[in-house]
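[READ THE FOLD]
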Amino acid sequence: MTTLGADLEVHVVSIPMRVPFRGVTHREALLLEGPAGWGEFAPFLEYDDPEAARWLAAAVEAATLGWPAPRRSSVPVNATVPAVPAEQVADVLARFPGCTTAKVKVAQAGQALRDDVDRVAAVRDQLGQEGRVRVDANGAWSVAEATAALRALSRFDLEYAEQPCASLDELARLRRSLAAQGVEVLIAADESVRKAEDPMRVAVAGAADLVVLKVAPLGGVARALEVATACGLPVVVSSALDTSVGISAGVALAAALTDLPYACGLATTSLMAADVVRDSLDGHGGSITVGRVVPEAGLLEELKASPERERWWRERLTRCAALGAGGSPA
């Protein structure tokens, strides 16, 4: 059982998005204030309680236990480009001043490969040849579709492709398919790690060249560090569309890793129209300083969710607290 002490205070916020992301127009989050600081519980609405319970374990860890000592004082971050039309790319990238790496969403439902090519081309044009461009399909392609898409996109000198297919088996087959066709694109596993019963299988399966780790879905910084060590692959730390409270946990993980060869996907507060702190961890300048954040009371009040939504989140909190961090009854 995830223990919720009486000394934990609960705040529920609803933050409007600048651009819809994964269909989300308002990002809701439950924030916990505890003796070690602040934690964030914000699993997406469609996630069931067993999956959401791991997010609660991460929030409780942040609020009550704290994090490992950092190995670095700042963490490099990338810009994130949603599946917008190519003509909007410049405006999106302008929200990430100083970032020389961009992650581009592709394989959006209702769009065609031509839309992806045009969007990635616009990003490459904005960043120049020295910039780094990566794409993220969120597991939407089949092996055949991914092979064709990455062959078309590889001319933009991709840093890597994140979760082009859904399963570890498909990722492994895709890597073999790309190699057979002489397409040189590294494969990163995201959902295949954080949603797997055994996250460490990704390396054994030969399914990826690197892994993308998110603190909340893995159950906290300590657990994510265990996964990183066991995988034995380079790590990119990413966020789950968090407020600066959640982002600070991702920064703590990135700061604790022995090696950090890639910019991290932690500059996502720029996608939201507000935050719970004035000095948002937005990655402006291309990096985020390591440290805790404390939400401002005025902003918590200003962004407070409706009574109905607060009740919904508190009920979800209670249900998930009755489950273990792995999503099983305590």
Remarks:
- The longest strand covers residues 9-21.
- The mean pLDDT is 93.
